[in-house]
Amino acid sequence: MAQYTTKEFAILSGENETTIRKHIERGKLLRNSKGFIDDENPINMVYIKSIAHGLGITPRYVRNSNNEIILMNINLYPPDEVEHLR
Fold it and tell me: pTM for this one?
């Protein structure tokens, strides 16, 4: 179970933070009791699958010039049961 801040989720989804906040206001995304966007919430899963074309997402990290690891964006991956896409 991964939990993301609004900023992190915006980076992962390729959307800007304002768009993510509007989706939260409209109920397309939900925050948990701690204020994070949980990728196992059923409503959030529907949104994630829609932006990842049904494949799902996993975070991708990179190391910047200051040797810090930063969240970059989504990395699409096929579900386990779809072997021919792997």
Answer: 0.63
Q: What is the CA radius of gyration of the chain?
A: 14
Secondary structure (3-state) at 3:
strand
pLDDT digits (tens, 9 = 90+) for 32-77: 999 999 988 989 888 887 776 655 556 666 677 888 877 665 554 5
Reference 40, options 17, 23, 56, 21; nearest CA is 56
Is the Cβ–Cβ distance between 68 and 7 less than 8 Å? no
CA distance 58 to 60: 7
Spell out the residues 6+ positions from residue 51 whose beta carbon is closer than 8 angstroms to its own. Answer: 13, 14, 15, 57, 74
- Which stretch of DSSP H or E encloses residue 72? strand 69-76
